[in-house]
Design a protein that fits this description.
Elements lengths: L8 H12 L12 H10 L5 H14 L3 H6 L2 H8 L6 H16 L6 H6 L5 H12 L8 H10 L9 H14 L5 H14 L18 H4 L17 E11 L3 E6 L10 E2 L2 E2 L2 H10 L4 E6 L3 E4 L4 E11 L12 E5 L10 H17 L4
Parallel strand pairs: 1-7
Antiparallel strand pairs: 1-4, 2-3, 2-8, 5-7, 6-7
Helix pairs in contact: 1-11, 2-3, 2-8, 8-11, 9-11
This protein binds a DNA duplex (11 and 11 nucleotides) through α2, α3, α6, α8 and α9.
Length: about 350
Amino acid sequence: MIRVNDSTFNERVLAWFDRHGRKDLPWQQDKSPYRVWISETMLQQTQVATVIPYFNAFVDRFPSVEALANASIDEVLRHWSGLGYYARARNLHKAALIIAGQGSFPDTLEELQQLPGIGLSTAGAIMSIAYGRSHPILDGNVRRVLARYRAVPGWPGEAKVNRRLWELSRALTPEQRAADYTQAIMDLGATVCTRSRPSCGACPVNADCLAFGTGRVNDFPAPKPAKALPVKQRTFLLLTDRHRQVFLEKRPPAGIWGGLWCLPEFENPDQALGWCLDRHIPVVGRYAMDRRRHTFSHFHLDFTPLVILTDGITGGVGETGSPIWHPLEAIARLGLPAPINLLLKQYQNHEDKHGKTD
DNA sequence: AAAGCGTGGAG
DNA sequence: TCTCCAAGCTT
């Protein structure tokens, strides 16, 4: 157990929060467990500004656990498309079905943590923000504040460092004003104790911040050890007909872009072409669009779009998932991975300008 | 323990 | 254009 010799840490953080904290974010208006749960899930590894429009649209369409449980996974994913980490949406839907079956929203840390997509930090955030119960959290903001405040060495991705930061968070979290404190410590990290160029002069705890006191603010937390990202080569088949319909298939439920509608994916253009020939798809024209590189968290994707024009296809060609022909103009409403959406928009612009090439 | 999972902002 | 990483969780 870590001893806290500075018993006023939380008091100073809370006093700062009263004057400078954010209190008008959409999910801070009606802090029901459901809304807090949705917002905390969306905010996992995702910045506030990105989340705001998604949160508003999501709770507008799914205003309650029941509404979410009664929706189809397709519609839930559609509202998530562009936000990334789609397992979060699949887990939300699964958890909503569980909660709806239980009849009431869970109100203990243990129950919350058993739901898919809710880990220790998200459970702590829901407990404190929605129920006003004192529970620590450890997100990126808190991790950074605490690593600097106590000059905790090492990369937080290491289990040992992570455990120490959790201990610190636990020790510093007060019994009183639990909801405000959770908001406060996150706001402090997000607006004052920022990753680069922190405003230490405006920090309520700079007087006993070990990193600030020793001029080593930039040394904490230690950066993740750099690793060269592997490069994957992939071809995406843009199979389209004279009616401006595009062939799409649903991706497998797990893995990247799981459950989303997408262009068929191949290792190279030859395989894409072979796939068409195997299915006796009449190829009346083809060309490659500009190749591009897309960077993900764990690999680079060298991305080759292959446009194939056909005619007379009515469906039933795919095998990975249920295939559909979909109007190009209405693609955006279907909810596709962001890079695929972008590619289709570029193709549509090109077609609008030059017309069909066949 | 370590890897997989997205997207966009910031430098 | 490239790297780093953000209100993390799961396997």
